[in-house]
Design brief:
By secondary structure, the protein is an alpha+beta fold. It has two domains: 64 residues, Winged helix-like DNA-binding domain superfamily/Winged helix DNA-binding domain (Arc Repressor Mutant, subunit A, Orthogonal Bundle), CATH 1.10.10; 171 residues, GAF domain (Beta-Lactamase). Helix content is 49%, strand content 17%. The strands form two sheets. A six-stranded antiparallel sheet has the order 5-4-3-8-7-6. Strands 1-2 form a two-stranded antiparallel ribbon. α1 packs across α2 and α2 packs across α3. The longest helix is centred in the first third of the chain and has 29 residues. It is globular and about 55 Å long. The C terminus is likely disordered.
Length: 271
């Protein structure tokens, strides 16, 4: 291949990557909105020109990735459901967990969440509401902050020591609320306590007014593949309920782990 050909190919590759980056940037913004968004709004949010946004959205609309209303505003389209369903089917975690999550929801009467953990990040995979849900602002597919959430802390507690240390050394613990634990020594003690109990807690550290308990789901090798959590408003999720719900969440996570092939018998502390 001639040098000029390689240069042209490299330039084309870079251009293709830029197009993909713009595509994902626009879709990520739309996925975070509750309603339609106009081209000007999208352009300002993503830092792209209106022409670029319009061009990307036109292609997306043709493929039902986005939908456009009568005044030229856009929102996520039904094609995304195909991708989301495919991901859930391929992971298998939601399939194994769904019945157990329903039972947990029935027993505790608070919102139940399922998370998937892949490549150092956790994401909402399933969410089951009660009729009395309050607050709890989260979306399927959104990323979970590990250090400030009960499910994230449960996952961190189940990681191999060297992987947990690598996470902590590379992450700045920023306060999500005024109650978020950001002192590293205190955070280490919190994780150690979670290892012993089998579940992790979080009290208004990620979202004001919301309290959660979570437990890690383990794969056949004992590595965390996800987590289950229960979340509720602080006025219902009182101190005297936390231990009871925490043990119930741990039991649910352990049953799902067994169905995924995890075989080591152990209670809290055996994560």
């Amino acid at each position: 291949m001639k040098k000029s050909d390689r240069t042209e190919e490299s330039s084309a590759d870079r251009q293709g990557i830029r197009v993909l980056e713009r595509f994902f940037g626009i879709l990520s913004y739309l996925a975070g909105q509750n309603d339609y968004a106009g081209i000007k709004e999208i352009a300002e949010a993503t830092g792209l020109s209106r022409t670029t946004v319009h061009r990307v959205l036109a292609t997306c609309e043709e493929n039902y990735v986005v939908l456009k209303d009568g005044i030229g505003r856009y929102r996520i389209g039904p094609k995304s459901l195909v991708w989301a369903n495919s991901y859930q089917q391929q992971t298998g975690l939601a399939k194994f967990a769904r019945q157990h999550l329903k039972e947990l929801l029935r027993d505790v009467g608070e919102t139940v969440n399922l998370f998937i953990y892949e490549k150092g990040e956790a994401f909402y995979l399933e969410k089951m509401h009660t009729y009395n849900v309050t607050g709890l602002d989260s979306r399927i597919g959104s990323r979970l902050e590990l250090y400030s959430t009960s499910a994230g802390r449960a996952i961190l507690a189940a990681l191999p020591a060297e992987e947990f240390d690598a996470y902590l050394s590379s992450r700045e613990l920023l306060p999500r609320t005024r109650w978020t634990i950001v002192d590293r020594d205190a955070f280490n003690r919190l994780i150690e306590e979670s290892r012993k109990k089998g579940y992790a807690e979080e009290n208004q550290e990620n979202e004001i007014g919301v309290r959660c308990v979570g437990a890690a789901i383990l794969g056949k090798d004992g590595y965390p593949v996800g987590a289950v959590s229960v979340a509720g408003p602080v006025f219902r999720f009182t101190d005297d309920r936390v231990e009871t719900v925490g043990k119930r969440v741990f039991g649910t996570a352990r049953i799902i782990s067994y169905e995924l092939g995890y075989s080591t018998n152990g209670g809290p502390g055996g994560l």
